[in-house]
Design brief:
This protein is of the alpha/beta class. It folds into two domains: about 170 residues, 3-Layer(aba) Sandwich (Rossmann fold); about 140 residues, Nitrogenase molybdenum iron protein domain (Rossmann fold), CATH 3.40.50. The protein is about 35% helix and about 20% strand. It has 15 helices and twelve strands. It has a four-stranded mixed beta sheet with strand order 10-9-11-12. A three-stranded antiparallel beta sheet has the order 1-2-3. Strands 4-7-8 form a three-stranded parallel beta sheet, covered by helices on one side.
Length: about 350
């Protein structure tokens, strides 16, 4: 994940540009470096799906000139809230009810509520006159409305988790004038991920499950799928190298919730658990542990070897991106080595 590697996906272009404003009249022209600092931009391009919910995807290329050192950033994407704060910036507006406790320090003291993850408060956002708006994932459909207010870009996951992380951290580092901090953060995360992969390799094969409504859903590697839900479900395997207990989890489970008997049948050496209901506030923390507290699960190798790892559901399910969040994922995985 070194920043020396090429980080651009086919649908993304990241180049630096300088826009110089012209001057006229008798007043002295500003110094060149002062003028450049005020007008510098970073060009960002991505492929935006313009099709409706039930239509075949239809993509257009969007290119936006993003101002460097923006004073007011509105972010609907929690991984952006994370990375901007970690690089020394702050978020002026966001869906405040969705910002997790561990990312509150990324918000400005007077941060305003920009709406929800799915719906923007256009009147409030326009009144605040932001310099930059960042969307992604759940909020990608807000582009057309928000782009009428301020430069708007989509930093949601498109491709692998690690490629997206590197691309976005590098890009935001350039926008914020924090290139060195971005490079150092990526290097630290690369080291941490390598350490976590050594721990998972020593722990044996595994299965990641999501617990919701008292049922278990097996999660599979993302494979060639680039959608955010597939990337999220495959984090344990794709990022941290856990060997799937069966070659094709999706086929083995038929896309349906799995039973406790299924866990005993395939008997993974490690079991990685995300409590979706706790992440969304539908249940208290620990609900997943109660679901798995039964005689069948207690017969599994994972249970008997104390190798059931309960993952912090907010970073794994709600945010799953950004600098601080990725460190939390690393720390969670390293529980298997304790």
């Amino acid at each position: 994940m070194s920043s020396r590697r090429s980080i651009a996906a086919a649908s993304f272009v990241l180049v630096s540009a300088l826009a110089l404003a012209g001057c006229a009249g008798a007043d002295p022209a500003p110094a060149a470096d002062e003028e450049s600092a005020e007008t510098a931009t970073v060009s960002y391009s991505w492929e935006r799906n313009t099709a409706g919910e039930d239509e075949e995807p239809e993509f257009v290329t969007e290119t936006v000139e993003v101002p460097k050192n923006p004073e007011k950033i509105v972010a609907f994407e929690m991984a952006t809230v994370d990375t901007v704060g970690a690089l020394g910036g702050e978020i002026a507006g966001a869906p405040l009810d969705s910002v997790p406790e561990y990312l509150q320090d990324s918000l400005a003291e007077d941060a305003f509520n920009a709406g929800t993850l799915f719906e923007a408060d256009l009147i409030e956002i326009e009144a605040q006159q932001p310099d930059l708006i960042i969307i992604g994932g759940r909020s990608s459909g807000l582009y057309e409305d928000l782009s009428q207010i301020a430069p708007t870009i989509d930093l949601g996951i498109n491709g692998s988790y690690l490629d997206t992380l590197e691309r976005n951290v590098t890009f935001l580092g350039e926008v914020l004038g924090a290139e060195d901090e971005a490079e150092a953060a990526l290097a630290d995360l690369e080291t941490g991920i390598d350490e976590a992969k050594k721990a998972t390799a020593a722990a044996g094969d595994g299965l990641a499950v999501m617990v919701s409504g008292g049922e278990l859903n097996a999660m599979a590697p993302a494979g060639t799928e680039a959608g955010s839900s597939n990337v999220r479900g495959g984090l344990v395997y794709d990022v941290f190298g856990v060997e799937p207990v069966v070659d094709d989890i999706a086929s083995a489970t038929h896309g349906e919730p799995v039973s406790f008997e299924f866990l005993l049948e395939i008997d993974p050496a490690t079991l990685w658990v995300v409590d979706r209901d706790a992440a969304t506030g539908e249940a208290e923390a620990g609900a997943a542990a109660q679901v798995l507290d039964n005689d069948i699960v207690k017969q599994t190798t994972a249970y008997q070897n104390d190798a059931i790892v309960y993952l912090d559901p907010v970073p794994w399910y709600i945010v799953y991106g950004g600098i601080e969040t990725t460190q939390l994922l690393i720390d969670d995985v390293l529980q298997i080595a304790e």
